[in-house]
Amino acid sequence: MRFAFTSDQRLLAATVAETLQKACPPSLVRAARTDPEIRRGEAWAALAELGLLGATVPESAGGLGFTPLDTVLAWEEIGRACVPGPLVETAVVAPLLAGGEWPARIAAGRAAVSVRCLENPYLLDADVADLLLLPEAGTPGLTELRSGDATRRLFSAAGETASAGTAADHAAVAVAAQLLGLSRWLTATAVAYAGQRRQFGKVIGTFQALKHQLANVAIKVEFATPVVHRAAYSLTHDLPTAGRDASAAKVAAGEAAHLAARTALQVHGGIGYTDELDLFLWLSRVWALRASWGDERLHRARIREALLA
After folding, report:
1. Which residues in 109-122 are b (16+ Cβ under 10 Å) and which e?
2. Largest CA distance in the chain
3. Nearest-angstrom CA–CA distance, 89 and 304
4. Rounded Cα distance, 116 and 154, in Å
5. CB 168 within 8 A of CB 117
6. 183 Cβ partners below 8 Å, 6+ apart?
7. Torsion over CA of 145, 26, 22 and 51, rounded to 10 degrees?
């Protein structure tokens, strides 16, 4: 059995990474905090042109008909670039839940979708969305909430919520993949800064304790990676363990990203909290995505139930 991604899957990820280097620089992520149009701006258009927004939309509706295994590496690159906007909700969840003309509009890059369900109780970027997917009946009014990540606008809605089912598992894996990408960016940034910052007349990157901290992050990320890839495989092949594997991926990636964020902040010191560095944008995204599409408590409970069953 071949345990490796295909050349096409790797090429898609490399193309996404190259595209986002130009279309989504840190300056754009920073500007997205105050300019709503950026969440549907250049980076969104670039991903739509690549076909990623319609990657899981059936070919009959103008999409690519890709599987989670085909796109998981691309989602890692989206996380690494900290791309703003309701991408998971639009490109992953909506094609599974929305009917009519919506899949075709999503594939063409002409629609953004926000989703509220039991696993994801807040509507992300509802102010720039064309469609709000609410499992409960009716269309309740929206109330904007304060978000820990200013590039992600959150809204609440009245009424009961229902589970999004399998679509929530697909979303959890895509978010987990983004957390891996964020972790790698944070680790690389911390390593680079450790090679520049000096204390006691020495570059801090030479301190043994700091080397151990950064090594622990690298190990945590590398151990979480196959868990996320396995979950994408399980969803692709509709395995009985797909739900459990998706939860395991979300937990593993969330823990790895948390450690990467904490270590990067320790390496940078107090300046890491300030607006002076782009680091805070990536830290905020990690904190937001750890809770998005199920926090670790929810997914640990699902894993426990699956194992005990």
Report:
1. bebbbbbbbbbbeb
2. 65
3. 27
4. 11
5. yes
6. 217, 220, 221, 224, 253, 256, 257, 260, 261, 286
7. -30
pLDDT in tens, 154-210: 998 877 788 889 999 999 999 999 999 999 999 999 998 877 766 666 766 556 777
| C-alpha span between 237 and 104 (Å, rounded) | 24
- Distances in whole angstroms, Cα of residue 111 to Cα of each of 41, 91, 108: 12, 10, 8
What does the alpha-carbon distance between residue 247 and residue 56 come to, in Å, rounded to a whole number?
21
**Residue 281's closest CA among 266, 295, 264, 256?**
264
Name the amino acid, one letter, at 234: S
Q: What is this structure's pTM?
A: 0.94
Amino acid at 216: N
Bridge pairing between strands 142-145 and 113-115: unpaired
pLDDT digit string (tens) for 223-241?
999 999 999 999 999 999 9
Q: Where are the domains of the chain?
A: 166-308
* Assigned fold of 166-308: Butyryl-CoA Dehydrogenase, subunit A; domain 3 (1.20.140)
